[in-house]
Amino acid sequence: MPDKKFTPSGFGTLAIHAGHAQDPRYAHLTPIYATSTFVYDNAEQGMRRFAGEEPGYIYTRWGNPTFTEVEDKIAAMEAFGLQDDQGNPLVLKALFQASGMAAISTLLLMNLKAGDKVLTHYSLYGGTQEILQIVLPPLGITAIIADLRDPARAAEALKADPAIRMLYIETPANPTIQCVDIEELTKLAKQYGVIVACDNTFATPYLQQPFRFGVDFVIHSTTKFLNGHGTAIGGLLVGRDLEFMQTKAYKTYKTLGGNGNPFDAFLLVNGMKTLELRMDRHCQNAEQVAKFLLGHPSVARVNYNGLASHPDHAVAMKQMRHPGAMMSFELKGGLQAGIHCMDKLSLCTRTVSLGTCDTLLSHPASMTHKSVPAALREQYGITDGLIRMSVGMENVQDILADLDQALEGVAS
Fold first, then answer.
1. pLDDT at 335
2. Using an 8 Å Cβ cutoff, are 244 and 226 in contact?
């Protein structure tokens, strides 16, 4: 039964067809392989599979056909249109994880050891902040935090500390939406033999491809825009070094037990098929919402890279197809203004997470970044009056109307 061998010319076609192999029972869509183990024709076949001499599935913690489609589809999207150092189409390897945090944990533990340091920036996802500053230090791994929007700061840190083993970036970052220059930072890191990893959750491969700029690893929380519907938790770790990904990375992945599950993989595969269409609508709406907020008398600042006034606008335009659907805004009235606005929302949804079809608003200081000390939050720009917004796919007039009435009466 021949598989499709068509080479897509566009991202939308790729998102629908990439990674799919014809099911042996001719199912149109890859089924949910809800099985913990896989069987063998004979003892010798089992021996060959365990020895790595024959491809095949053994145990779902180690791999599953539904996982494979997720992994191959996202790897293809991250590599779409890119070439390796020899001028051949870039080939990447991905591992499907139980969550974005599982992917980050696998990334860090498979690359770092006691005595190593990670160079990163402020305004990271709260869970990432916690693992870097709370979980890793007792293991002898520490983080150096600097304002990496200025590459000179990165150069100073790399030159001063040979213990830095990894540069970890998140761009756009959560929740201030700041951007760092992937290309410039990667060039610097490579001068010092430092691994570069990039969290690409906010942008997705449709808006940004970090491998274009030479990074070694990309991480996704697939829970967000890739799934697109808020129906499943998941994460993905993608790597450039195929041998490393198939050996040490895979060994770490299966031993830690951070794999996803077949049902969530199935939901993710089907969500990703509409990624291009969804992101286009998200982004169109976000542009109009940002302009509305920028002109509102109760809003002190709008963090959206699509605004020419944003300090990271040029960097975002350099490396992104579009600034995206994520933004945050600072209310002049501080915490009480934020509570007032959140409580009055009627259409938009009060919740954490992001990337679903509906518009989501959250209050980072009391929600996603509650565990970050208040002094650090303030230093990172996560003030009590900051509201993060994932702009959805509703008719934009309805989003604007809800925001307008929610901001009515807020101190200006």
1. 85
2. no
Strands of the 326-331 sheet, one edge to the other: 299-303, 326-331, 386-390, 360-362, 349-350
What is the rounded distance in angstroms from the CA atom of residue 127 to the CA atom of residue 211?
Answer: 24
The C-alpha atoms of residue 331 and residue 410 are separated, in whole angstroms, by 8
Determine how many CB atoms are found less than 10 A away from the CB of residue 238.
29
Quick one: CA dihedral 252, 257, 262, 267, positive or negative? Answer: negative
Among candidate residues 236, 197, 199, 166, the one with its CA nearest the CA of residue 326 = 199
The Cα 166–Cα 217 span in angstroms is: 11
The ranges of the chain with pLDDT < 70 are 1-4, 367-372, 376-380, 412
Q: What is the pLDDT of residue 1?
A: 39
Secondary structure string (H, E, C) spanning the chain = CCCCCCCCCCHHHHHHHCCCCCCCCCCCCCCCCCCCECCCCCHHHHHHHHCCCCCCCCECCCCCHHHHHHHHHHHHHHHCCCECCCCCECCCEEEEECCHHHHHHHHHHHHCCCCCEEEECCCCCHHHHHHHHHHCHHHCCEEEECCCCCHHHHHHHHHHCCCEEEEEEECCCCCCCCCCCHHHHHHHHHHCCCEEEEECCCCHHHHCCHHHHCCCEEEEECCCCCCCCCCCCCEEEEECCHHHHHHHHHHHHHHHCCECCHHHHHHHHHHHCCHHHHHHHHHHHHHHHHHHHHCCCCEEEEECCCCCCCCCHHHHHHHCCCCCCEEEEEECCHHHHHHHHHHHCCCCEECCCCCCCCCEEECHHHCCCCCCCHHHHHHHCCCCCEEEEECCCCCHHHHHHHHHHHCCCCCC
Q: What is the pTM of this model?
A: 0.94
pLDDT at 371: 62
